[in-house]
Amino acid sequence: MALILEISLSFLVIGILILWFRQKNKNKDFYKNIPGPPPLPIFGNILEIGSTITFIDVMLNFAKKYGGILLLHGGPIRKTLLVSDYKFLECVLSSTKILNKTEDYNFFRPWLGTGLLTSDGPKWKKHRRILTPAFHFQILEQFIDVFESGGNTLIQKLEKEVGKKSVDIYPFVTLCTLDIICETAMGTKINAQENSDSEYVRSVKDMCRIIIERSFSFLQLFDLTYPLTKNYYVEKKALKVLHQHTNSVITKRRSELKNPATKKTQDDNFGPKTKKAFLDLILDAKVDGRSLTQEEIREEVDTFMFEGHDTTASAISFAIFCLANHPEVQAKVLEEQRQLFGSNKNPSPTYADLQSMKYLEQVIKETLRLYPSVPFYGRQTNEAVEFNGSIIPEGVTITIFAYAIHRDPKYFEDPEQFNPSRFEKIDGKLPYCFIPFSAGPRNCIGQKFAMLEMKSTLSKIVRKFELMPSTPQHKLQLAAEAVLKSANGVKISLKLRD
Ligand code: HEM
Q1: Of the residues 197, 225, 242, 257, which has the maximum number of CB atoms within 10 A of its CB?
Q2: Which residue CA neighbors atom 16 of ligand 1 most closely?
Q3: Is the model's pLDDT at 298 over the cut of 90?
Q4: What is the pLDDT of residues 92-128, one digit of tens each?
Q5: Residue 1 scores a pLDDT above 70
Q6: What fold, for 99-375+415-463?
Q7: What residue segments make up the domains of the chain, in order of their start?
Q8: pLDDT at position 346 over 70
Q9: For residue 315, which atom of ligand 1 is closest to its CA?
């Protein structure tokens, strides 16, 4: 018996060693000429990365030292190209062959399954096709009311902060964007701004935190050791709450749609004759001639919930911070609002009004250039691809470093300066140097939705408040979490406009 066990164990160890050796040497010839920081045995470069707060600076320094295509070793086996080179980005992002996501997205899967963000291959392609019409302008137009009412509650909350020397606006904005995405994605209200300590809101926050903590902690990185940590149990509880919530909304909605009598009893304005939530469009959709399963629908709704609130919260908060610290830009934004709405202090902007806020759009773009909500994102080749006369083989992991190209002086004069007007000159030119929403076939499906939501919320805030720097003046401490954040908050001060 002992002998059989010994032999089995030896085979297992040999098997693992062969796999490890193969993996370690995969694409060796391709990697050998790519510059990068020298790796340590076993650890590779991970010890140099530090925490979420040091991450961006370390990566930026690597890019400055080794160039726009460099090789990083994430431990003994994993390798990734860190890319901020324009030509390479163009090749990767425009390609219809480099569409798969990397292993890093595995941490999202317990929550999002294989929704649009995390799926690959034919499933991604089919779901992208059926979800694209959900972002048609006629659909987006009916969400303007939801943006309005979420923004109005935010204003009420911020009114209580007027006159304080320092207000961290990030928590206020996150609850607002969570309210908005919940109502637009599921057609139900969670009233996060009124009830920020609800189980659902807490579970969303827990999951957003855990996803990133897992990628920075050795114990949490591996499925085998993860159950030894507290986060494993917090995650289990959060997932139960989140999945149960989405599932019950789907079930309720499905039965309402089947039974016209109950449709009329709905308590919100997502009734059959009024607007449709993303969920309704997904329930109507067909893939290969069949409706989506409960699980497929849940994955897509949860993906919208995740992708659609933290990203916009980060962008809106950083934009408010930039406006507070650049009064001349804020004055131009206000002037644009006054030209549109005259003396009406409480307008309800239409879709066309939001579209016409061109300067505000430049402000948002400039904010996203300096503070891209998603500073890094990943792709993996699943077949060989040609680049510049050489071949990128199958199985290469690519990390797109949007933050770095956004601050490259080759493309942006005085890149550290907040200067929204630069977009008058560069808009549309060199599409792969401004990539906050990614680009090409796997770009952000929600970018038009996001732009409308950001314009609606920001314009409302600027019309209502004078935004000023906090006392003492706040210095952002950027942290590369799943979404870019400021580890020490986003602090400003507020004054009511006359
Ligand atoms: C400022 C706001 C936003 C920014 C900066 C942003 C940025 C991005 C980026 C960079 C990606 C590509 C990620 C990757 O390749 O891994 C992405 C994908 C995605 N975004 Fe957004 N996003 C924003 C808002 C939204 C909103 C509001 C929604 C939904 C309502 C949304 C839904 C999605 C989805 C579903 C994907 C996956 C698309 C696919 O793989 O086909 N995003 N977003």
Answers
A1: 242
A2: 377
A3: yes
A4: 999 999 999 998 899 999 999 999 999 999 999 999 9
A5: no
A6: Cytochrome p450 (1.10.630)
A7: 99-375+415-463
A8: yes
A9: 1
